[in-house]
C-alpha cells in the first residue's frame, strides 16, 4: 500500500504544557489491570511526566508493562512506592474498595494523588480524603474523565449558552453485555460515569435519589438498575445501568424548553441538536390553553477529537505545579460518591427515596473555572 | 407509469368470518375524533358488520364521515344510539373520562360494548363495568389492540416457546413530541400501550409500582414519567413515557437468561432476537464463581403483516355471535387500569411505592385461549 | 383513546388556487391501475377540478373507483372520453407503450393532456407530442412528480445558492425487491425518476450515456442496470437501478467542491448537508501540491411536508387556465426520454457509449420559472 | 476503575504455529509509512518470526519504530537488507511504483518476498515477479489481506454452500473522504480491495471491464471511478471507488437466486443474510409467466474476531517453511493487477470496454486449498 499525501488535520489536540526549565513530575502507577495501561500509555507520552515506578500484585503484568516504561522500576509492595523520593505523585487504578486506603496512605506520605473513580466507597471516606489533601496541601484528583470528553464538553457549552432553554428532564442509558464486577453493584461501576456528566452539566447535586434493580446473575450483586434523581431546580433524571443488554448503548437525551439534545457516545455523530419544542399559550388569551409543536433543523455539530485522559492528566500536572487545589474536581468526586451511595442504599431498600446530603458541596459544582479550556 | 406484473403476497391477512346465513351485526360508532375514523374504516370493510349509526357532538365531523358509511344515520345525542333497536353493539372512542358513563349506559340499555383504552379511570369503575357485562350477559371488550400486533405476537410466541429462558427484566421507552392530552397525564395516555403488552407477555400483574415524573408544560398534567414495576416472579420493568422527545421511539428490550429481544415498533425489523447471555459457573467447582459471556447470531424474523384492529374486531364480533364472555380481555383491561391507577398515584406521591391489588384478576392473564389464533 | 389538544402544524401545504368565478376544469382519468387511483384521489380533492369521466378496460376497477367520484361517468372505450364535451383535459396513467397513442389522440381531439412518465417510448414520438401540443395550443404535461418533491426542491435551492460549490459527481441508487414490469426494462421503469431529478438539479442534458445490466429473472427484460452519464460541464453521474435488492434504497449523493449532500428518500431525515471537502493548494506556492481535508457540521434541514402530486396538478390546471405552455416540463419530459432511450440502447449494445442528442432542448432545462414556487 | 471478573472469550484467534525446534524466520520490513507499522506490530508478536531489519528512507521513522523491535537493525539503503544473511524474507510496504523493482531485487538476492498490494503496476511485471519466484523457488506473497477477513470468509462459506443460489450481480461501494494518492488513481489505490474480494468469492476473472471516472481535485489523478465488470458466468459487478464522499462506506451487496447478502465492513453486523428472492413460474404452465416475491428472515451471523493480517503472515511463514509455492495467492495477485490495469485503461479511454486477458490464471482462482482454514 502506497503512502498518502500528507494532510492537515483540523481536529484539536492537547496542546501540552512545555514549560522550559522544569523537571518532569515523578509519578508511580499503581494497578495495571483493565484501566492502568491506559494511564501508563498517556503518561509516558506526556513530556511533563517521568514514570518512575509501576506497582501491581501480579508480577506477570509488571513484566509485560515495564517494557513500555523503560526508566520505571517495578514493585509488588505499595510501601516501596511511598518511600521512593523520586515519586511525587501516585496514580491509583486498583479495585474500588482499595481506593480509600491507598489514597489515604499516599497523602499521608506526602504524595499528590490521582485516583480512579469512584473516589471512595462512602461519603465519609471521600470527605476524609478531600480534607486530608487540603490540610496537607497536596493535590487530590479523581478520574472523572468524562468531563473532559469532547461531546460532553460540546453539550456543556450549549447549556451555558442557553441553547436548550430551561432543562425539563434527562434520560440516560448505559448498558452493555459485561463486565460484571466482583465486589460492587452496577451502580458503583457504571453510575459514576453518568452521575459525573449530569452533575457537571447541571451544576447541582440531586436532593433525592431512588433506585430499583435486580441481581440477575450473581446473588447480591445488582447487574441492572433504574435510578431516578430529583433536583432542586425541578429537573428529573432517569439513568438505566446494566451489564446485561443485547447491544451496547451509551445514550443520553436532554429535553429543554427551546431545544433537545441526544448525546450518543460511540456514534459517528455523538451530539445531535434538535430544534424542537412545545409552545404553550396562556389560557387567559385563548379561553383555554393552546399548545403548538415546533420542529426545525437537526444539527450534528463537528466535535473536537482529542484524548480526554491526556487533557485531564495535563490538568493534574498543572495543579501540582501551581500548588492550586482542584476545588471543582474535589466537589465533583465527593458529590458522585454521595449519589452512588444514596442510589445503592435505595436499591437495597426496595426503591425507597433516599435524600442526598452535602448541598454545600453541590454549590461548588458550578465553579468549573479550573477546567482546562479547550 | 405502467402496471406491475401481478405478484403473490406471502403475508398473512385477517381471514374474515364469513358464516353464511347470519345477518351482519348492527353497530354504532360513538366519537369520531383521533381514533374513531380508524374504527369506522375497519368496520365498514368487515362483511360481518353493518355500521348503523355515527354519533359525535361535532356536526362537522358527522358530515365528513357519513359519506364513508352511506347506510349509517348520524346523531349528536347518545340516547338516540341507545334507543335504536338496530344497534346491537356500541363502539366507544371518546375522551378517557367518558368511557365509564357511556359504556355503563350502553350495557344498561342491553348493548354489547367495545370501548377504547383505558376501560375506565379507576379500578372500581372498571370492575363495575366488567361485572355489569357479566351479569347482563353482554360482551364487553376494551381496545388493547397491541395484543393483536404481529411483532407483539411474535415475541409472545418466543416467550411461550422458552426461547429467551427466564426473563430477568424489561426496559421500555414510548416517547414522542406530542400529543398532550387535556384531561389526563402521560401515564393514562401512553401507559396502557406498554402495560397491556407487558401483562400479555408476562401473564402476571405487578405487585408494586413506582413512578416519577414532571409536568413540564401544562401545570398538573405530567408529560414525562418513569414507571418501575415489580413482579412476584422477580422480574422488574422500567417504562419511560413522554410527550416531549427529540424523536419518536417505541422500543422495548427483554433480557432473558438464554436470549434477548429488542422490539422496536415502527422499525423495518420490529423484532430482533439476540443469541446473547451470561453463563454462571458455580463457586463450588471453580473455587470462586466464573462468568462467561456468550454472543451468537442475531435474527430478524419475518413478521406477519395484517391490521391488528381488524383481527381484534373480528374477535369482538365472534364473541357477540357466540355469546361467549371475553375473560382474558376483561382481566387485561381491569389489570391495566390497576397499574395505571397505581402509577399515577405514585407519581402524585413523589415516587412512593404503591401496591397493586387484584392478584386474582392477574391470574386470568395466562388464559389467553380466546385470542384469535393467527 | 382520548382526543389530543388541537395543535398548529408548521408544515407548508399546497395553498390551492381558489380563483372565484371560474368553473372547475372538467377532466377524465384514463387508467386506474397502480398509479391512477392516486391521481383520482388528488383530483377529487382539488376544488378547481371536476372529475367527469373514469376510463379503464377493466370494469371491476371502474366499479370500485366510481364511488370515489360520484359525479363521474365511467367507460371502457377511450373514444367516449374524447367525444365528451365536458372533458377539457385527459389524465393518462396507462402502461408505458400506450402513452404516445392515447396522448396523440387526445391532443388531436382538442384536449389538454397530463400523461404519466415516460412521455413516450422514443424521442421521435416524444418530440411529436410536444410539437402537436404547441401547434394546437394545448397544454401537455408529463408526470415527473419528483421535481415537486420537498427534499428534491430543498437540494435544488442549495444548488442554486451555490451551497455545494462546483458539483464533481453524483451517485444514485434506486433499488427494491419488485415490481418487475412486463413490457419494459428497469431503465424505462425506474430510470425516469432519477433522470428527471438529475436534469432538474443540474439544468443540463448529458452528452453521453453508458449502461450495463442483466436480465436475471425474465429473459429479455433487464432487471438490474448501472447507468453512467457524462455532462458537458464535466460532471459524471452513476445510477444503479434494480428490481432485485435485499432492501429498499432510494439514495443520492452529490459531491461538490464546498459541501456534499445525501438525499435519502424515505428516511426521516431525507436531506443531509455535510460541510466536508478537500482544499487543494497550488504546487507553485508549496513546491508540490498539498491537500487538506475539511470536516465540519452535518445539518438535516427541516423539510416541508406537502403532497408533490397536488402541487403538480395545481400547476397543470393553472397552465390550462392561463393558456401558457409548460416549456420547462416539455423540455424535461423530452430530455428524460432521450436519456432513457440512449441508456436502453447502450444496455443492449453491451455498454457502448451512446451520444444523447437534443442539446438545444437541454438548454431549456434551466428555465424553471414556470414551476410553482413553494 | 476496578477490575472486571475474568471472562472467557468465545471468539477465535489465530492459533499460532509453534513448531518446536525451528529457529524463527529472519525478516526485514521495508517501508514504515502508513501500513508498515501494522506489519511491524503483527510480526513482532509472531513467535515464528524475528524482525532483523527495518529499512526506510526517512531516518525519523526509523528512530520512532526501532524501539518497537529492539533486536532489529535499521538502515536507509535497501542494499543493506539484501546483503544481510540473517534476512530470509523481505516484507515490502512502500509506494506502489516501487513494488516491482524492490521485489525483483529481493528475489534476485534469494529472499522470500511479501509485498503489499498491488503486486506491480502492470500485468507484465506482475507475471515476471511470479515467474522469477517460481524459477528461484522462493515464496512470493502479495498483501491481499481481505481474503483473510472474517466477514469475507463468512460470505465465502455461504457461496460455497450454495446458500445464495446462482449469483446474478454484485454492487460495491468503497468511498471515503481521503486519502488522495500522489502517484496513482483511486482505481489502483482502492480497487485492489474489492477486486481481490470479488475474485476470491466468485473464483473467476472478469472477461471485460469498463470504468468511468473524474479527476476532480488533482489533474490527472482520478479520485472517483465507477467500474463495471462482466464475467463469463453472466455475473456483472459494479464497483464505486472514491476518495470524495460525505461519509465512509464499505458496502457490498450480492444478489443471488435464493438469498441476498449485504457485507458492510465496519458495521457492528458486517454480514447480513436476507432470505429474499423472486420465483419465476414458466409461461408454459400459466399461459403467461408469473412472478412471486419471497421475503423471509434476516440473519446477522456471529462473525469470528481475529486479525486477518496475523493469519495471512502465518500462512506466509508456513509456506516459506514448507517451501510450497502459494499458487492461489500468486494467481490472485496477478489477476487483480490485470483487472486494475484494464479498468485504468478504460478510464483513460472514456469508458470503452477493455478485455481482460489471462483467463488461464483465472482458472487457478478456484484452487484455494492453500488458505489457512479457520
Short description:
4 copies of one chain form a homotetramer. Chain A has helices at 36-44, 59-66, 78-83, 99-108, 123-136, 150-160, 186-202, 283-286, 308-322, 327-348, 359-363; strands at residues 25-30, 49-55, 73-75, 89-92, 112-115, 140-142, 167-175, 206-214, 224-231, 236-242, 249-256, 260-264, 271-281, 290-300, 354-355.
| Mean of pLDDT of chain A | 90
* Structure summary, number of beta strands of chain A: 15
**Major sheet strand order of chain A:** 14-13-12-11-7-10-9-8-15
Distance between the termini of chain A: 36 Å
Walk me through the structure.
The structure is a homotetramer of 374-residue chains. With 374 residues, chain A is of the alpha/beta class. Chain A is 32% helix and 26% strand. The first copy, chain A, has eleven helices and 15 strands. In chain A, the strands form two sheets. In chain A, strands 14-13-12-11-7-10-9-8-15 form a nine-stranded mixed sheet. A six-stranded parallel sheet of chain A has the order 3-2-1-4-5-6, sandwiched between helices. In chain A, helix 4 links the parallel strand 4 and strand 5. In chain A, 51% of the residues are buried. Chains in contact: A-B, A-C, A-D, B-C, B-D, C-D. Chains A and B meet through strand 7, strand 8, strand 9, strand 10 and strand 12 of A and strand 7, strand 8, strand 9, strand 10 and strand 12 of B.
Amino acid at each position: 500500500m502506497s503512502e498518502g499525501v500528507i494532510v492537515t488535520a483540523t481536529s484539536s489536540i492537547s496542546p501540552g504544557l512545555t514549560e522550559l526549565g522544569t523537571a518532569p513530575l515523578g509519578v508511580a502507577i499503581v494497578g495495571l489491570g483493565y484501566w492502568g495501561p491506559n494511564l501508563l500509555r498517556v503518561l509516558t507520552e506526556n513530556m511533563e511526566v517521568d514514570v518512575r515506578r509501576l506497582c501491581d500484585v501480579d508480577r506477570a503484568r509488571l513484566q509485560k508493562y515495564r517494557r513500555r516504561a523503560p526508566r520505571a522500576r517495578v514493585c509488588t509492595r505499595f510501601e516501596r512506592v511511598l518511600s521512593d523520593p523520586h515519586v511525587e505523585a501516585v496514580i491509583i487504578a486498583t479495585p474500588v474498595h482499595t481506593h480509600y486506603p491507598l489514597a489515604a496512605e499516599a497523602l499521608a506520605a506526602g504524595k499528590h494523588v490521582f485516583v480512579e473513580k469512584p473516589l471512595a466507597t462512602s461519603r465519609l471516606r471521600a470527605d476524609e480524603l478531600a480534607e486530608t489533601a487540603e490540610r496537607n496541601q497536596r493535590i487530590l484528583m479523581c478520574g472523572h474523565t468524562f468531563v473532559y470528553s469532547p461531546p460532553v464538553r460540546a453539550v456543556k457549552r450549549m447549556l451555558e449558552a442557553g441553547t436548550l432553554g430551561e432543562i425539563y428532564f434527562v434520560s440516560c442509558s448505559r448498558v452493555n453485555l459485561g463486565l460484571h464486577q466482583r465486589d460492587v453493584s452496577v451502580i458503583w461501576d457504571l453510575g459514576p460515569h453518568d452521575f459525573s456528566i449530569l452533575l457537571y452539566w447541571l451544576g447541582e447535586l440531586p436532593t433525592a435519589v431512588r433506585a430499583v434493580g435486580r441481581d440477575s446473575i450473581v446473588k447480591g450483586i445488582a447487574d441492572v438498575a433504574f435510578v431516578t434523581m430529583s433536583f432542586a431546580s425541578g429537573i428529573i433524571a432517569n439513568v438505566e445501568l446494566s451489564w446485561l443488554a443485547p447491544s451496547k448503548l451509551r445514550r443520553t437525551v436532554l429535553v429543554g424548553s427551546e431545544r433537545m439534545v441526544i448525546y450518543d457516545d460511540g456514534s459517528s455523530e455523538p451530539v445531535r441538536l434538535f430544534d424542537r419544542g412545545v409552545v404553550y399559550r396562556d389560557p387567559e388569551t385563548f379561553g383555554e390553553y393552546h399548545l403548538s409543536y415546533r420542529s426545525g433543523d437537526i444539527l450534528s455539530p463537528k466535535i473536537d477529537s482529542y484524548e480526554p485522559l491526556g487533557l485531564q492528566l495535563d490538568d493534574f500536572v498543572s495543579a501540582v505545579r501551581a500548588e492550586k487545589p482542584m476545588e471543582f474536581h474535589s466537589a465533583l468526586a465527593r458529590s458522585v460518591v454521595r449519589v452512588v451511595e444514596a442510589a445503592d442504599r435505595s436499591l437495597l431498600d426496595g426503591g425507597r427515596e433516599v435524600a442526598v446530603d452535602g448541598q454545600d458541596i453541590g454549590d461548588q459544582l458550578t465553579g468549573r473555572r479550573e477546567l482546562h479550556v479547550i
